[in-house]
Amino acid sequence: MNTLKTIVTAVAFLFATTIFAQDNKANNIDNSNIALQGYSPVSYLDLGLAQKGNKSYKSEYKKVVYYFTSSEQKASFDKNPERYLPQYGGFCAFGCYAGAKFRVDPNKFIVEDGKYYLYLNNVELDAKQLWLAENNHNKLKAVADKNWKKLSKTHN
User: Fold this and answer.
1) C-alpha pair distances (Å), 139 with each of 31, 33, 45, 124, 133
2) What's the CA gap between 146 and 155, in Å, rounded?
3) pTM
4) Is there a single domain that holds both residue 13 and residue 41?
5) How many helices (H) and strands (E) does the chain have?
6) Calpha distance 143→98 (Å, rounded)
7) pLDDT, tens digit, for every residue of 20-67?
8) Which of 3, 34, 77, 142 is deepest in the core (most CB within 10 A)?
9) How far apart are CA 88 and CA 77, in angstroms?
10) To the nearest 10°, the Cα dihedral for 44, 48, 53, 59?
């Protein structure tokens, strides 16, 4: 689809010319190593909701801190943390498709095939809508997965 190619080119240009706070690891975390801007990974996957976690219910996995809304959510995560990790380290799925790592709006996500994907959203771009407009999750995911193998090892 030529329209998608044009959109990807425009998105890549926008990403390249806009300054984003980025970390240089495979996880989209802040300076305190808190993942998902404090949102609960269990809420995304099990409830299909973006819910801010509470620091009273937190777990650390691979040196990254996750917050939850309850002790039950924390227990679910602790039993199987890999199940609840965000795709692409919590970076924007469409950005990974376009070949770059970008911070996300924690309220912009989709759940597909037992995984959740987060997206950039600002006044100029709604990456979730670009992803959905293509109407081909598997194609976009295949390219994003391939790009992520390189991106997860690079510094931005």
Assistant:
1) 33, 32, 22, 24, 13
2) 17
3) 0.82
4) no
5) 7, 4
6) 8
7) 433 445 666 666 789 999 999 999 999 999 999 999 999 999 999 999
8) 77
9) 18
10) -40
